[in-house]
Amino acid sequence: MELTTLIILVALAVGLIYAIMLYNQLVSVKHAVSQAWSNIDVLLRQRHDELPKLVEACRRYMQYEGETLERVIAARSAVASARQQSDVKGVGVAETALRSGLGQLFALAENYPELKASDSFQHLQGRITGLESGIADRRELYNAAVNINNVRIEQFPEVLLARLFSFKPAELLQFTEEEKADVDLRALFS
User: Fold this and answer.
1) Per-residue exposure over 24-56, b if at least 16 CB sit within 10 Å of its own CB, e if not
2) What is the C-alpha to C-alpha distance for residues 98 and 116, in angstroms, rounded to an integer?
3) What residues have CB less than 8 Å from 145, skipping those under 6 apart?
4) Alpha helices in 2-157 (DSSP H)
């Protein structure tokens, strides 16, 4: 009888240790998603801070392009609002509008040689372009973390712990085909 009791206790201990390890892994994966979102958020904030400087530099030269400048400002506000609410879908939609507005702004800058020659504009354009690349890279890392999280909480036996402790799937930062399409620069000048 003692040997049977010992085997049962060892099996329970091993099962408990395994469950603890799975739980800790799920917690780690969940926090990796939060960290990846925070990394995107840092770059979005930096770009948010740089955009008014770019718009102001352009405003000095582009007296007749107010609509484009207003579109960039409105899109900037939409990104900030969605970011503050942690609305992944909202960020995706607002990001698309902002990228489109920036594409129009940079295309229109071609018509203003003084603006293109401005050191301030060149610096800001380079900085924002770099931030855009960083955001795209971080978006990829975020989606990878979300995918790992979502797969782990659906796999057996993790699904049992995930349901027991209310682990939720995270939302991918996705764009529709229309949102991913390149900006038609010719149409901007028509």
Assistant:
1) eebeebbebbeebbebbbebbebbbebbeebbe
2) 20
3) 29, 32, 33, 35, 36, 170
4) 2-61, 66-84, 88-109, 113-117, 119-152
* Entry pTM: 0.70
The stretch 8-15 carries a mean pLDDT of: 94
pLDDT score recorded for residue 149: 95
Query: Considering only 57-61, 75-79, 165-169, which range has the smallest mean pLDDT?
Result: 57-61
Residue 137: other Cβ atoms inside 10 A? 13
Could you give the CA distance from residue 135 to residue 5 in angstroms, rounded to a whole number?
A: 57
CB 92 within 8 A of CB 173: yes
